[in-house]
Design a protein that fits this description.
The complex is a heterotrimer of chains A (about 220), B (about 240) and C (about 50). With about 220 residues, chain A is mainly α. Chain A is built from nine helices and no strands. Chain B has about 240 residues and is mostly helical. Chain B has one domain. Chain B is built from eight helices and no strands. Chain C is an all-alpha fold and about 50 residues long. Chain C is built from one helix and no strands. The chains are: A mainly alpha (about 220), B mainly alpha (about 240), C mainly alpha (about 50). Chains B and C meet through helix 3, helix 4 and helix 8 of B and helix 1 of C.
Chain lengths: ~220, ~240, ~50
C-alpha cells in the first residue's frame, strides 16, 4: 500500500501534472471557442454542451497518455518497477489513477462552471460532472492499453489516439447520454459499469503487453 | 502435422510455392470476377421491393462479410503467430489488413449509394453503420501500428494484441442489428431458420462472394510475398550497416 | 437499370476503383521491393 502511494505520488507529481495542466487549458479553450463557432444562441449551446464537454474531456485526456509509460520505458525505470515486489498490474493501475487524477478529475470539476457558461442549468451541469466522475475512469484505463501498445512506435502519441478512439466510444456514448437534460440513470450506471469493466480488464491487458515488450 | 506445417511455414518454401500459385490464382480471380459481375449486373432479376438497386447488394453484402471475416482472420493469424511462434502467421496477419480495409471502405461507399435511393439519405448514425465506420478505424489503426514500429517481431506483438482487443468489436457489429431497432434491415442470409432471400438473388450473391474471396486470397498472398521481401531488405540493410 | 442506374453504376465503379488501386499499389510495391533487394544483394549500395 505504501509502495502504491509512493508510486502514485511520483506519477502524479512527475509527468502527469504537466499534461493535466495542458488538458485543462485545452478544455477551457474548447469551451471559449465553441460559442464563437456556433454563435451565442443559448438554446443551441445548451443542447450541444454536454456532448462537447465530453468530447473535449476525451481529447484532453489523450494528452497525458504519451507520458504514461514512455519515459519510464526509455530510462529503464519501467523494468525496475516490473522487477519490484509490486505486480506490474498494480503499477499500471497506479499510473492510470495518477492520469485520471491529473487529467480527468479537474475536468469533471470544471464541467460545472463550464456547463453554466454554456447555458446549462445548475442541475444539468451537475449531471455532467457526476457522469464524468463515474464514466471517465474508463478513458484512463483503456488509454493505458493504447499507451502500452505504442511504446516502440514513432509518433506514438498520435497513434495512441487512433488506437484508443474506438475503445473510448462506448464510455463517450453512455457518458453524454447520462449528461442529457433529464439525467438518465440507466446510462449513468452503464457508464459506471464500463469504468468498472475497464478496471477489471485494462490493467491486466496493459501489463501483459508491457511484459511481452520487456521480455523481447 | 507439425513438421509438415513447419515445412510449409518456412519463408523460402512459401516463396517458391506462392510464386507458382499466384499467377493461377490471379487468373482464376479475374475469370470469377468477370462471371460474377456479368451475372450480378445483367442476369439477376430485379427484386420486387428494392427494384434494380438490389444489384448494389451483390457488392455490399459480400464486401461486408469479407470486411468482418478479414478482421477475424487477422486475429486468428495473430494468435497463431503469438502462441506457436510462426513468423509466417504474423506476415499473413499484416498482409490481410489492407484488403480488409478496402472492403470496409467498399461497404461504406456502396451502402451510401444504396441508402440514398432507398432511405433517402447518404448516411444515418445508426448502430450498424457506425460500427462499420469504427471497423474501418480499427483497420487503419492496425495498419498504422505495423508501419510505426520498425522491428517486425515487436510490431507483430503489438499489432496482434490490438487485433485481439478489436475483435471484441466484430460481434457487436454483427448483433447490433438485433440489439438496436433501426432503419437497417435484419440479416437475411445468415439465419438459423435458413435464408429468406430468393434463390435467384442468392446465386449472384454467392458468386460475387466467391469471386471477391478469391481476389482477397490472391492479394493477401501477394502482400505476404511483399512483406517477406521487405524483411529480407531490412536484414540486408542491417547487415551492411554493421559491416 | 431504370432510374437508379447512376447509383448502381457508381457503386460498382467506386468498388472497382478501390480494388484496382489496391492491386496496382501491391504490384508496384512488389516491383520496387524486388529491385531494391536485387541491388542490395549485388552490393551496389553500401550504406542504406
Amino acid at each position: 500500500m505504501k509502495a502504491f502511494a509512493a508510486l502514485l505520488s511520483r506519477e502524479f507529481g512527475g509527468s502527469q501534472l504537466g499534461a493535466g495542466g495542458l488538458g485543462v487549458l485545452f478544455f477551457l479553450a474548447v469551451v471559449v471557442l465553441l460559442p464563437l463557432g456556433t454563435g451565442p444562441d443559448a438554446d443551441v449551446l445548451a443542447r450541444i454542451a454536454p456532448g462537447i464537454l465530453w468530447i473535449a474531456a476525451l481529447l484532453a485526456s489523450l494528452l497525458g497518455l504519451e507520458s504514461m509509460f514512455r519515459e519510464d520505458f526509455e530510462t529503464g525505470s519501467l523494468e525496475v518497477m516490473a522487477m519490484s515486489a509490486l505486480p506490474l498490474e498494480v503499477v499500471v493501475l497506479a499510473k492510470c489513477l495518477a492520469h485520471w487524477l491529473a487529467c480527468l478529475l479537474p475536468l469533471a470539476a470544471l464541467s460545472v462552471p463550464c456547463g453554466l457558461l454554456l447555458h446549462l442549468s445548475a442541475n444539468e451541469s451537475l449531471n455532467v460532472a457526476i457522469a464524468m466522475l463515474l464514466g471517465t475512469p474508463a478513458f484512463s484505463l483503456f488509454g493505458s492499453i493504447g499507451a502500452a501498445l505504442t511504446l516502440d512506435a514513432r509518433r506514438g502519441g498520435l497513434l495512441a489516439l487512433l488506437l484508443v478512439l474506438p475503445l473510448s466510444m462506448p464510455p463517450l456514448i453512455f457518458g453524454s447520454l447520462a449528461s442529457g437534460s433529464e439525467g438518465n440513470v440507466p446510462s449513468l450506471l452503464l457508464g459506471a459499469g464500463l469504468s468498472l469493466g475497464a478496471l477489471a480488464v485494462a490493467p491486466f491487458l496493459s501489463s501483459a503487453i508491457l511484459w511481452a515488450r520487456l521480455r523481447a | 502435422m507439425t513438421p509438415l506445417m513447419n515445412r510449409y511455414a518456412h519463408p523460402t518454401h512459401f516463396m517458391r510455392v506462392s510464386g507458382i500459385a499466384l499467377p493461377w490464382l490471379a487468373a482464376a480471380s479475374v475469370i470469377a470476377l468477370v462471371v460474377a459481375l456479368y451475372v450480378a449486373l445483367f442476369v439477376a432479376p430485379e427484386d420486387y421491393l428494392q427494384g434494380q438497386t438490389v444489384r448494389i447488394m451483390f457488392l455490399h453484402v459480400p464486401a461486408a462479410w469479407l470486411a468482418l471475416g478479414g478482421y477475424v482472420a487477422i486475429a486468428i493469424a495473430s494468435v497463431t503467430g503469438w502462441i506457436w511462434k510462426r513468423p509466417l502467421a504474423d506476415v499473413a496477419a499484416r498482409a490481410i489488413a489492407p484488403t480488409g480495409a478496402c472492403f470496409t471502405l467498399i461497404v461504406l461507399l456502396t451502402g451510401s449509394l444504396w441508402g440514398k435511393p432507398m432511405w433517402g439519405t447518404w448516411w444515418v448514425w445508426d448502430a450498424r453503420l457506425t460500427s462499420v465506420a469504427i471497423l474501418l478505424l480499427l483497420y487503419l489503426g492496425y495498419i498504422a501500428l505495423w508501419n510505426a514500429i520498425e522491428e517486425p517481431s515487436l510490431a507483430a506483438r503489438a499489432a496482434g494484441a490490438l487485433a485481439l482487443i478489436g475483435v471484441v468489436n466484430v460481434p457487436v457489429i454483427h448483433f447490433s442489428v438485433s440489439w438496436w431497432n433501426t432503419l437497417h434491415q435484419p440479416a437475411s442470409v445468415l439465419r438459423l431458420d435458413g435464408p429468406t432471400i430468393h434463390p435467384a438473388l442468392l446465386v449472384p450473391l454467392l458468386l460475387m462472394f466467391a469471386a471477391l474471396s478469391l481476389l482477397m486470397v490472391t492479394i493477401t498472398l501477394a502482400r505476404m510475398r511483399l512483406e517477406i521481401l521487405r524483411r529480407r531488405t531490412r536484414m540486408l540493410r542491417l547487415r551492411s550497416a554493421q559491416a | 437499370m431504370g432510374k437508379y442506374a447512376v447509383f448502381i453504376w457508381s457503386s460498382y465503379g467506386v468498388s472497382c476503383a478501390v480494388l484496382a488501386g489496391l492491386v496496382i499499389a501491391t504490384i508496384a510495391q512488389l516491383y520496387r521491393q524486388r529491385r531494391l533487394l536485387r541491388r542490395l544483394e549485388s552490393g551496389s549500395i553500401e550504406r542504406p
